[in-house]
Amino acid sequence: MINTYKIAVSKYALEKKIPSGDPIWSRFNASFENLDIGTNDLLDTVYEGHAITTHHKNNWRASENYICGQHIGLDFDNEDENSTIDHLKKDKFISKYASFIHTTISHTPEAPRARVVFLLDQPIMQAVNYTKAAAALLWLFGTADRQCKDAVRFFYGAPECEMEILANMLPIAKVKQLIKSYQDTGSKEKKRNYNYSAPASQVEVSEALKLIPPWQIDYDEWVQVLMGIHNEFGEGGYSLAESWADGKEKEVEQKWRSFKSSGNVQGSITIATVFGIAKKFGWSKNG
User: Fold this and answer.
1) What are the boundaries of each domain within the chain?
2) Helix, strand or coil, per DSSP, at residue 115
3) pLDDT tier for residue 262 given thresholds of 50, 70 and 90
4) Maximum distance among all alpha carbons in the chain?
5) What's the predicted TM-score (pTM) here?
């Protein structure tokens, strides 16, 4: 039996992105057909340049018209090694749960860009839950494009793109676990923000960092410390972060570059996160 997935496919096969303000936008937005499509046909669809999105009604792609979604895409657009297929396929979560990876329509060998597509074992029937699922995956991957959480977001196809077929499915049960972890983290961050005020200087942060052993915390917390410093000090905090992190060559630089100027993936990760982690190692607000 061939598995099929509820995915809407545009009738247009595009060779490049549609320019902003182009009159074709209206026709494009109404060009999607709700399909039950097999994996091989989906791969062909992407390879031919057809955009995909979630099932929706009224022949119009809008959140209020959402019906269901059975795929989640993550775009990696850093244009460095972190956005290559070879790098992404080595990630443990991607190698276990992603269905395929492909270079995007904006990819070039000099500035690599790639998309990871997760096909779900069951469709998500409510737009709010789909948005939560996409946000939870973004929380898991700090370098992915934060805009990829709209319930009816479309993904351009990529004519003659490179592809890596992993042939996995992401179970809804796992998605629910991720959402819970994502929401729990947000709750903890709000509590931390209530208990700790922002520091007055990098000196205070540096004192807290001295108590956090970078090799004795898990990777997620390691990234959160970098995010917190970036959130508080911007580029001015890079030296502080690098001197603490003890990362591999260029690891800190690459991770730092992935943080958007508008904030980090969690959004609520602030300098209070750093103090919350430091507290576990004996840090006290009052010294």
Assistant:
1) 4-178, 196-279
2) strand
3) very low
4) 64
5) 0.69
